Amino acid sequence: MRVLLAGLFLCFCASAFSQPKYEFRGVWIATVDNIDWPKRGVTDPAKQKADFIRILDLHQRNGMNTMVVQVRPAADAFYPSPYEPWSAFLTGVQGKAPSPYYDPLQFMIEETHKRGMEFHAWLNPYRANFNIKTASIAKNHITRVHPEWFVTYGDTKYFDPGNLEGQKFVENVVRDIVKRYDVDGVHVDDYFYPYPIGTKEFPDWASYKKSGTTLSRADWRRSNVDSIIRQLSIIIKEEKPLCKFGISPFCVWRNKSQDPEGSDTKAGITNYDDLYADILLWLKNGWVDYVTPQLYLEIGNERVDYATMVEWWANHSYGRHVYIGHGVYRAYERNKAWKNPDELPNQIKLLRENPNVQGSLYFSSKTFDGNPNGWNDSLRNNYYRMPALIPPMDWLQTKTPEKPDSLGVGFLNTDIRKPVYTLMAYRRKSTYDVRAMIVYISPKKEDVLSKSSKALKFVITENKRNNAIAFNEFNPADYYKKEKKYFVGSSFEYKTGAESEVSNVITVTRQKNGSVSFQKN
């Protein structure tokens, strides 16, 4: 029988921890300087693909549902771009295409979606040359074509945020990504105006004078960043209204000593005053769909306490989503707090106590390769043992999808001694905008009919080639030892979190001889 779908199966047994049905669980996959992927010096596309699949499978086992992948680390591209050259972090030489040729971004999106996960394209709007001393820069790189758009600060070259032509160029890059690729979100990190280097001044005085503004230099800088964030928000929604726009800023907006609205912290750097990023304005105006403060500090930190900041961001979300950024990489530092196996579990428990916080994002992917402090095990066996759906964003235009017309079970083989089944859902072709199905399984019929989080078992993503979707090689006897289980399915649009009513019920009964019977209700 032809396999119609690649699905995500997440087995669940009773857990002592209450886990939310909706929760963002993401991982940053950094490509700049080959932090996470691809491995430094590995330019063979086959090896790159195999390693990315390994990464996805690791995070799938850990219960994640979103990958935030850096596709434009320094005015370069991990995809064929009409604006920017191929990234040196991909092929070793900027401007050199992969050989044998492939489109890494398309590949990564397809593999991520196969596993029922969202893919958010991560980029930095202003960084143009990661290291002016060592970087490979192509002849057609924008810093060579329009050097007047850029300034150098330290060892890095940046778009001048006050240059409107440079801003328009970045807007075109983002529009191109959203238009041509099936990305679920666009993600911008914390590098707006760069982090200060001692007392060294950022060299934008000429640009400030040329602007003719009556604003102070600080307010002018903030207005430059406001402008690009607002324009990116408009562009993304013009191309794809359901594509999300998220920001991962430095963890402190302002200290309370600087502003009554600020947090009870003693941060030496703040978004508003040093990076010129007024995150609260963007949230208030609805320019962004979610914010992921990089809260890489431990519970009880004397200057910036984790618990304090979770509450502060929750109270300043203005109806948008808040996903906390966790610095799991710090498990490899010489810091007593981050050597404590309970640090991450306690952080998860704290954020789950606040209804205005909808999940987590982890920096960065490679940290999980070593299972630091046993955190992979903690996620798999406890905190992320049960799958979670992407939290719905009520402000995105959406409609409730139609429920599956019919839920049934098919056979993949005819060996009575060890049968393998396919769970199938048939739908009318008119409902093809729906890309996934949720399956609920429980010994309690009321739990599946109510779509209880306790009964949520796995998410199936369809290939759109037929009016049926299926989960391959599914044998209820292998996973559910009770004598009787009830199955239902619902249609799910994972870009918005919209879910239909449930399908018909399938009763699965395990006989005394070990065989399994099915009754369709």
Q: How would you describe this protein?
A:
The structure is a single chain. This protein has 521 residues and is an alpha/beta fold. The protein has two domains: 20-383, TIM Barrel; 406-520, Immunoglobulin-like (Sandwich), CATH 2.60.40. The protein is built from 14 helices and 22 strands. The strands form four sheets. Strands 2-3-4-8-9-10-12-13 form an eight-stranded parallel β-barrel, surrounded by five helices. The radius of gyration is 24 Å and the shape is globular. The two termini are 25 Å apart.
Question: Can I get a quick summary?
Answer:
By secondary structure, the protein is of the alpha/beta class.
CATH homologous superfamily identity of the largest domain: Glycosidases
Please identify, by name, the CATH architecture of the largest domain: Alpha-Beta Barrel
> What shape does the CA trace take?
globular
User: In percent, how much strand structure appears in the residues?
Assistant: 15-25%
Q: And the CATH topology of the largest domain?
A: TIM Barrel
Count of discrete domains: 2
User: How many extended strands?
Assistant: 22
By secondary-structure content and strand pairing, the structural class works out as: alpha/beta
- What top-tier CATH class of the largest domain fits best? Alpha Beta
How many helices? The count is 14
| Oligomer category | single chain
Strand order in space, largest sheet: 2-3-4-8-9-10-12-13
Weakly predicted, low-confidence segments: 1-16, 463-468
Q: Characterize the largest beta sheet: strand count, sense, and whether it forms a barrel.
A: 8 strands, parallel, barrel
- State the distance separating the first and last CA atoms: 25 Å
Radius of gyration: 24 Å
Give the averaged pLDDT, no decimals. 89
Helix percent band: 25-40%
